[in-house]
Amino acid sequence: MGPPGAGKGTQAERIAERFGIPAISTGAIFRANVKGQTELGKQVEAIMATGGYVPDELTNALVRDRLAEADCAPGFLLDGYPRTVGQVHTLDGLLAESGRPLECALELIVDEDAMVARLLARAADQGRADDTEEVIRERMSIYRAATAPLTAIYADQGKLRQVDGMGDIDEITARIVAALADLAD
């Protein structure tokens, strides 16, 4: 978990590789569907262009289908999900049905102005139309209102682990690995 630009995607790939599990990025799945002009892509394109969240029903269905795939049996890392309290409850239900507990929720703690600068640089490098400053600020606002409260839920469950997400990518990875050390067994 963490605001847009916190490095969730980069770190998710690294951590998933280290633990030998798939990293599931709802944002990447949505962007691939938009690019491929699939039915799902057509439904979410306008929402994503304004920085809004894709409705829970669509996102939950996507995650439910993805978690049912065979490569998720030994475990998985979710990147960009859950983002709302409703999604937390859906995820809890999905995991209860499959008999798999959520082991932890990891939050990257970052500086918002640094994230805006990082996302603007990424937009220039990758040509991402959804990363204008106005859209980035809207996504940050939505994050604070809808997603940040999820950390309280996971803290109450004793599952929240917070890591400083500022600095060199390798340093951040090392901090995350240290925070997750007890899960490697």
Structure characteristics:
two-stranded parallel sheet, 58% helix, 185 residues, single chain, 4 strands, Rossmann fold, mainly alpha
Strand content: 5-15%
Topology as H/E string? HEHHHEHEHHHEH
Main beta sheet: 2 strands, parallel
Q: Count the helices. How many?
A: 9
CATH topology: Rossmann fold
| CATH-defined superfamily | P-loop containing nucleotide triphosphate hydrolases
What does this structure look like?
- By secondary structure, this protein is mostly helical.
- It has a single domain, classed as 3-Layer(aba) Sandwich (Rossmann fold).
- The protein has 9 helices and 4 strands.
- A two-stranded parallel ribbon has the order 1-2. It has a two-stranded parallel sheet with strand order 3-4.
- Helix 4 runs parallel beside helix 5.
List the helices and strands and how they pair.
Layout: H1 8-19, E1 23-25, H2 26-35, H3 39-49, H4 56-67, E2 77-79, H5 85-98, E3 105-109, H6 112-126, H7 133-147, H8 150-156, E4 160-164, H9 169-179
Parallel strand pairs: 1-2, 3-4
Helix pairs in contact: 1-9, 2-3, 4-5, 6-7
Summarize the structure.
This protein is mostly helical.
